[in-house]
Amino acid sequence: MHARSLLWVAAIAVLAYFPKCAAEENDAKKELAVHEWGTFTSVLGSDGVAMRFHPGPDGVEKRFRPDSDSPGFVHRAALKHYTLSCTVSLETTVIYFYTAQSHNVSVEVSFKHGEITRWFPRASVDPLLANGVFPEGEKIEWKSISLSPNAEQQFPVEAAARGPHYYVARETDAAPLQVPADGVHEQEKFLFYRWCAGGTFSQKAILKATGGDKFSVQNTSGHPIPAAFLVTVRNGEVNFLKVGRIDAVKTVTIETAASRTTVEQLGGILADALAQEGLFKKEAQAMVKTWQSAWLGETGTRLLYILPAEVVNDWLPMTIKPKPDALVRVMVGRLDIFTPEQEKEIEHLVKVSETASATAEEKGAAQRKISAYGRFSASAANRARRRP
Q: In the chain, where are the structural domains located?
């Protein structure tokens, strides 16, 4: 009996040991989830052709201007020219990390078609070489990121209100991170970067205005667009139309958004659509809050659509080491468009503002009317000047 009892005790000890080992293995496993959001912005003529524009909030971004819409502590590229113009601008992109334990990770993002203009914390920005020789875009790399979920949050701030949209992205449950920089550490709740592309690079949805407040949208990506919304802001009123899913290589015809709404209501609808694609609720809300004044406040008509994940991964290849257990990348395409009627009016206003026979008062009135078209009015005016 004594020997049999000993065997039972040993068996119970072994059975108890395996769950304990499994629990220890689970505890030792450092799960890591990475989420990213950002906005690709373009402005189009009624024919769907992209116009060059300056990505600043007022339509003119001076590359070394201190009053940019980014905080002063954000790193800026020392680019060759004083001003920057794009056909596609990747604006306020952030990468969040979620983990219960400390991690050291590295992140590299490549840009095949443009220049990196802003980033934080400190990172290495280098040419992306084709065949190891010819520059073909750029890449940004954060080589040593320390993730500390329980660290005290001491993020940089500025006394002035410059760059208020930047801070909204902190309103999530992501883990704080820090990166070494010149003997100190730069701390933040996310990785941040901006990017600008010109030339023939364009978005994967073609939006055209055919007149009479009618539009067509063609999905050229080869993959379904999960969701799209047509938003019109006129005289402070916001109207929208839920276009919904657009299948690959499909063209849909739509009319000007007819459902009047409030900024708050439409913001909630957009946040729900973003969450459907995998963003956490607080992330989706932070993204909409960051862009609320631009998406839903700036005068004009625009299509907001969620880019297919395959397009995001093709445009912005990302490498994270060690590989995360989960990676979610949700990017919004923003296509602002001028209608044929608006283009005709702007063409007339440009002629008046530049006609020698016009009075100073007439020129000033014409310029004010052009500016009333908002952030992209300068691009539309330049296009009007080039018309034969």
A: 33-336, 342-386
